[in-house]
Automatic annotation (TrEMBL):
<keyword id="KW-0479">Metal-binding</keyword>
<feature type="binding site">
    <location>
        <position position="136"/>
    </location>
    <ligand>
        <name>Fe cation</name>
    </ligand>
</feature>
<dbReference type="GO" id="GO:0008199">
    <property type="term" value="F:ferric iron binding"/>
</dbReference>
<dbReference type="GO" id="GO:0005737">
    <property type="term" value="C:cytoplasm"/>
</dbReference>
<dbReference type="InterPro" id="IPR009040">
    <property type="entry name" value="Ferritin-like_diiron"/>
</dbReference>
<keyword id="KW-0963">Cytoplasm</keyword>
<keyword id="KW-0408">Iron</keyword>
<dbReference type="InterPro" id="IPR001519">
    <property type="entry name" value="Ferritin"/>
</dbReference>
<keyword id="KW-0560">Oxidoreductase</keyword>
<dbReference type="InterPro" id="IPR008331">
    <property type="entry name" value="Ferritin_DPS_dom"/>
</dbReference>
<dbReference type="Pfam" id="PF00210">
    <property type="entry name" value="Ferritin"/>
</dbReference>
<keyword id="KW-0409">Iron storage</keyword>
<dbReference type="GO" id="GO:0008198">
    <property type="term" value="F:ferrous iron binding"/>
</dbReference>
<feature type="binding site">
    <location>
        <position position="103"/>
    </location>
    <ligand>
        <name>Fe cation</name>
    </ligand>
</feature>
<dbReference type="InterPro" id="IPR012347">
    <property type="entry name" value="Ferritin-like"/>
</dbReference>
<feature type="binding site">
    <location>
        <position position="26"/>
    </location>
    <ligand>
        <name>Fe cation</name>
    </ligand>
</feature>
<protein>
    <recommendedName>
        <fullName>Ferritin</fullName>
        <ecNumber>1.16.3.2</ecNumber>
    </recommendedName>
</protein>
């Protein structure tokens, strides 16, 4: 990117670089959830598959929100390369535990960009990320609630099918 273009941006260069990292992370999340949807379909968890298809779409929307923000602020969004998508899970519990683990990483990453933007006095980026901070609270809460439901239901006997049926409560 030419220096003059970087100078005319309404956000800081360091913020843009971190936001490009976040674009990649959201795209990666979208791909992971698509792989989870595939696993759920193949293993008979059809409601959970629907849940993950929807999550995959949402993550792509998150990616595009950041992509468009970089365009609006005169930056250069980078279309991410995605690889190393795990398709192998040991159980439906493993799928949801991995989801929570991933969402916690996303939250940490967003908080780090907010902290950096604050340090740089980049108010535009800091304000833009407000929505993402609250979205992460909601997403983590959803997955924690599903894991609580799994624990209460139990995975013995018809438990697994009941778990899958109940996931419908978290599909908006
Ligand atoms: Fe967009 Fe669930 O992170």
């Amino acid at each position: 990117m030419k220096d003059i273009a970087r100078q005319s941006m309404s956000i800081k260069v360091e913020s843009m670089d971190m936001l490009n990292g976040q674009i990649k992370m959201e795209a990666h999340a979208s791909a992971i959830y698509l792989a989870m949807a595939s696993w759920c379909e193949q293993n008979g968890f059809f409601t959970s598959a629907k849940f993950f298809f929807k999550q995959a779409e949402e993550e792509r929307e998150h990616m595009m929100k950041i992509f468009n923000f970089l365009i609006d602020t005169g930056g250069s969004p980078i279309s991410p390369e995605i690889s190393n998508i795990n398709h192998d899970y040991s159980s439906i519990v493993d799928v949801f535990e991995s989801t929570l683990e991933h969402e916690v990483k996303v939250t940490t990453s967003i908080h780090n960009i907010v902290k950096k933007a604050r340090e740089l006095g980049d108010i535009t980026t800091e304000r833009f990320l407000d929505w993402f901070v609250m979205e992460q609270v909601e997403e983590e809460n959803t997955i924690r609630d599903i894991l609580d439901m799994i624990e209460v239901t139990g995975t013995e006997g018809v438990g697994l099918q009941m778990i899958d049926n109940q996931v419908a409560n978290w599909i908006e």
